[in-house]
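Quick review question:
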């Protein structure tokens, strides 16, 4: 008798397959709006995440560009910060070169220890200027007897000659200078032109 009671209890406690299907359908029907709502929210969240990732990538790219530009600007400032100062000193160097040439021309007329000391002082001062310029990557452009280069030289006239090839620098009127790869001042030159045959 106890066995019959247990069997009856088991029969009444277990739902039938049909009842299980109906319960599942009811639950599915009740949960469908919630699942759909959650699915919509998930799509919105995924779209928002995608948008935020894209904005983050753009912001990182912008930051990298700003860093690169800043590094380039700092590098250029280091390389070319002396440009204005160096240009101002060119006039002093030109004056010393003219004084040296003038004293050399007049030293023959006036032979004295004072003139020689003056000439030596000018030469030494000029050498100090040139050495200091080289120390800061300011290079002298003195193209005597070299081919004319329009990027580095400024032709102020042409002179017929048979002693040099055409477009060769015959005379440097004013030396040029270059800071790193930037031209501070072109060398002013007279260039050779082929002599016209009579």
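Suggested answer, residue by residue:
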């Amino acid at each position: 008798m106890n066995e019959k009671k247990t069997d009856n209890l088991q029969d009444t406690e277990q739902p039938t397959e049909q009842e299980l299907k109906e319960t599942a359908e009811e639950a599915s029907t009740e949960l469908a709006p919630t699942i759909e709502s959650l699915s919509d929210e998930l799509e919105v969240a995924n779209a928002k995440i995608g948008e935020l990732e894209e904005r983050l990538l753009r912001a990182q790219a912008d930051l990298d560009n700003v860093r690169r530009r800043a590094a380039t600007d700092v590098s250029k400032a280091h390389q070319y910060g002396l440009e204005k100062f160096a240009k101002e000193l060119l006039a002093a160097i030109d004056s010393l070169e003219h004084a040296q040439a003038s004293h050399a021309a007049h030293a023959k007329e006036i032979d004295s220890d004072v003139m020689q000391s003056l000439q030596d002082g000018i030469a030494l001062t000029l050498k100090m200027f040139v050495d200091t310029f080289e120390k800061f990557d300011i290079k002298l452009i003195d193209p005597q007897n070299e081919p004319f280069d329009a990027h580095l030289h400024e032709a102020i006239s042409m002179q017929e000659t048979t002693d040099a090839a055409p477009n060769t620098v015959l005379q440097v009127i004013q030396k040029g200078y270059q800071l790193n790869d930037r031209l501070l001042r072109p060398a002013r030159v007279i260039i050779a032109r082929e002599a016209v045959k009579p």
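Why it works: The mean pLDDT is 84. The first helix runs from residue 2 to 13.
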